[in-house]
Amino acid sequence: MATALITGINGFTGHYMAQTLRQAGYAVTGLSHEPAEGVLACDLLDRAGLVEALAQVKPDVVVHLAAIAFVAHGDVEAIYRTNVVGTRNLLEAVSKSGCTPRSVLLASSANIYGNAIVGPIDETVPAAPANDYAVSKLAMEYMASLWNDQLPITMVRPFNYTGAGQTLNFLLPKIVDHFRRRAAVLELGNLDVVRDFSDVRTVVNSYRLLLEAGRSGEVFNICSGKGHSLLEVIQMMRELTSHNPEIKVNPAFVRTNEVHRLVGSRARLEAAIGDVSDIPLRETLKWMLEEPV
Q1: Where are the domains of the chain?
Q2: Looking at residue 97, what DSSP letter applies?
């Protein structure tokens, strides 16, 4: 039985990644701040602890999901420390521990593209990060490239994705929660933004297929290739719930460096793993309404 190590296993994506890999026959171990069954307690900034954990698990595949993933996170220093230094510590630990994984998947972000004027965005579009989170992810990619001759690294750039269990500081869970509670007012920021939304279950299955495809040294967008405006999302929620809250734009939620349109191309991904079976956004929103976890 192949062994998988997932950093950030207790997070939103890590939870679904672990389920997917177990269903595919992997023995799954995770790294997180809190120990639990099948989870080792280790901080990404603990270099010696990481080496010890990797030497103990000896994973066949590594999925690195641990990160500060909220764009508006208030501690800028923590963003860089976790996303760049923490990732470097992990790669160093994989190398020093003596384990020889066949694949190491690192999660970057489509936010590195910024306000790209082309669309859909493929992997050749120049990076133009518009916030510290995106800069930290791009810096992580450059740093990780230094390890390409030592480790079989596959880089993924997920566009927006969501699902049951995502925290309410993310946009779609916030919207779903307001409709579920039948709140009278829904306050949002920029209403004209367009995003490429995927279902988390589609995303983690794409990650699994890339791990098994052995595409080291390559970069892949993880996306649906379809754009939805916030107004479209709100209309879907109205239809699903028969609720019609007042929509207000709160200036405090409007970001001056907002990325207005972010829609990706997954041609390279499908060339590597075959056709991706999409879950329509409406079905994802319905799932989130029915299974708030």
Answers
A1: 3-290
A2: T
Inter-residue contact 24 to 208 (CB < 8 Å): yes
Is the CB of residue 74 less than 8 Å from the CB of residue 131?
Answer: no
Packing angle, helices 12-23 and 200-213, rounded to 10: 50
* pLDDT tens digit sequence for 23-41: 999 999 999 988 888 999 9
Token code pair at residue 13: 């994506």
Query: 185: which strand partners?
Result: 246
List the beta bridge partners of residue 4: 28, 61
DSSP 3-state of 161: strand
Q: Is 109 helix (H, G, I), strand (E, B) or coil?
A: coil
Structure tokens that stand for 230 in this block: 């916030």
Place of tokens 């190590």: 5
Q: How far, in Å, are 45, 51, 66 from residue 48 at the CA level?
A: 9, 5, 18
Q: 3-state DSSP call for residue 248? A: strand
Looking at domain 3-290, its CATH architecture is 3-Layer(aba) Sandwich (3.40)
**Model confidence pLDDT, tens digit, residues 110-122:** 999 998 877 899 9
pTM of the model: 0.94
